[in-house]
Amino acid sequence: MKRFLPLLLLIAFIGCSKNEGSASIGDVAIETHIDSISYSIGMDIATSFTQQSVDVNPEVFVQGFTTKYKGDSTLFNEEEMRAVLTSFRNELRQKQQDVSKMKSENNKKAGDEFLVENGQKDGVVETESGLQYKVLTSADGPSPVVSDKVTVHYTGRLLDGSVFDSSVERGEPASFRVDGVIKGWTEALQLMRVGEKWELYIPGHIAYAERGSGGKIGPNQLLIFEVELLGIE
Q1: Does the active-site annotation cover 225?
Q2: Span 114-232 CATH architecture
Q3: Catalytic residue from among 49, 176, 182, 232
């Protein structure tokens, strides 16, 4: 898919560009299947551009596409075009890295502040790794070892209280190896006993660290889990 991205980006801006006082996309009729595909691709890629904060001049963008598509003479030759795009990709990559770094620093600060306050609450225990937990329901079942496979129910939340994942909401427990999850989980599971329910407060460095996970969990983000250890397989 990546090899087709430059072409798709061009198509996107053909569909999305407009000038004041001239015809807009609202005047373009969707009459054929190709029209539907073209418009949908434009919407999808425009969303991607917005999310990545990519800045272009739509008029110049459209001119470059039109002249190349028609086979007319272009302002840049192929070598010049590739040089510009290589520079652009490098700039975009650096910009994304800068944004990610800022998010990581902000998430770490928020997580650290939460842990300092949370660690002073009754019943909250902190381990050497920085993991904090609170036992909600005690039990006297066995504890798993790192190579065991366990079955659990869990709900994961961010600091703002929003749920990003929940086996409880899905209505089906999850099963996995103790060493097959994030470090904070691996540590906590070996401390738990079957039948117990804990609340875990996992700092970013033993959660998803700098990489984050998908769109909901950012870099170095602290995660809160309510976990019930149902069994050991």
Answers
A1: yes
A2: Roll (3.10)
A3: 182
pLDDT tens string 21-67: 333 355 678 889 988 887 887 788 778 777 777 877 778 877 887 89
What is the tens place of the pLDDT at every residue in 201-232?
999 999 999 999 877 899 999 999 999 999 99
Task: Report how far residue 189's alpha carbon sits from residue 159's, in angstroms, rounded to the nearest whole number.
Answer: 22
The residue annotated as part of the active site, out of 13, 133, 154, 201, is: 154
Question: CA-CA distances (angstroms) from residue 96 to 40, 92, 213, 214?
Answer: 26, 6, 16, 15
Spans of all domains in the chain = 2-75, 114-232
Question: How far is residue 8 from each of residues 14, 105, 115, 198, measured CA to CA in Å?
Answer: 10, 34, 45, 48
Mean pLDDT of 110-117: 98
Choosing from 11, 14, 45, 165, which is the catalytic residue? 165
- Is 39 one of the annotated active-site residues of the chain? no
pTM: 0.70
